[in-house]
């Protein structure tokens, strides 16, 4: 890898560390190519991406950032899983780590906060952005549906009373 390629990798990693809602760092020693592809697909399906890079280049990209402490995690064969959504990459990696013991979550960063393995697990347990939007929409729609039901109920009661009176009269 020549100098220009290294600079491009550092720039890409810099963008990942700056723009991502969450970055998860894990050891992947012992994963086969098929298992790594499966991890990439799972994270991609969740809305994130996976990046393998030399630890030295990642440490250079972390210099001067609020998450520079994440550089301590960069030993051995490390992989980065990241996403804009602060939850999706963590969920995908945690789910994969449950299925495959070879992937060991070391920690990561969420915004400016560093995460240990327990922190990544806690983030993975949080509802995703879509789940939060759905629950908020349900909360907002519930009063409207209750009002519509209350308004419609007296009319149906009147209609049933009128039909009962009509049946008695006939």
Give the helices and strands, then pairings:
Blueprint: H1 3-19, E1 22-27, H2 33-45, E2 48-52, H3 55-62, E3 78-83, H4 88-99, E4 104-110, E5 113-115, H5 117-125, H6 129-169
Question: What does it look like?
Answer:
This protein has 170 residues and is of the alpha+beta class. It folds into two domains: 3-126, Ribosomal protein L10, N-terminal RNA-binding domain (Alpha-Beta Plaits, 2-Layer Sandwich); 127-170. Helix content is 59%, strand content 16%. The protein has six helices and five strands, in the order αβαβαβαββαα. The chain has helices at residues 3-19, 33-45, 55-62, 88-99, 117-125, 129-169, and strands at residues 22-27, 48-52, 78-83, 104-110, 113-115. Strands 2-3-1-4-5 form a five-stranded antiparallel sheet. α1 packs across α3, α2 packs antiparallel against α4 and α4 (88-99) packs across α5 (117-125). The longest helix has 41 residues, at 129-169. The chain is elongated, with a radius of gyration of 26 Å. The model has no long low-confidence stretch (mean pLDDT 86).
């Amino acid at each position: 890898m020549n100098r220009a390629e290294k600079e491009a990798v550092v720039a890409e990693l810099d963008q990942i560390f700056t723009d991502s809602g969450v970055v998860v760092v894990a050891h992947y020693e012992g994963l086969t190519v098929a298992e790594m592809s499966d991890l990439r697909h799972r994270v991609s399906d969740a809305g994130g991406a996976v990046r393998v890079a030399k630890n030295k280049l990642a440490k250079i990209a972390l210099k001067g950032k609020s998450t520079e402490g994440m550089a301590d995690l960069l030993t051995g064969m490390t992989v980065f899983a990241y996403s804009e959504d602060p939850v999706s990459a963590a969920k995908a990696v945690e789910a994969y780590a449950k299925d495959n013991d070879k992937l060991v979550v070391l920690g990561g960063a969420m915004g400016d906060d560093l995460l240990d393995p327990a922190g990544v697990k806690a983030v993975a347990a949080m509802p995703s952005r879509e789940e939060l939007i759905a629950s908020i929409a349900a909360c907002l729609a519930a009063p409207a549906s209750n009002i519509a039901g209350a308004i419609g109920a007296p009319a149906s009661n009147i209609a049933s009373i009128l039909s009962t009176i009509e049946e008695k009269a006939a």
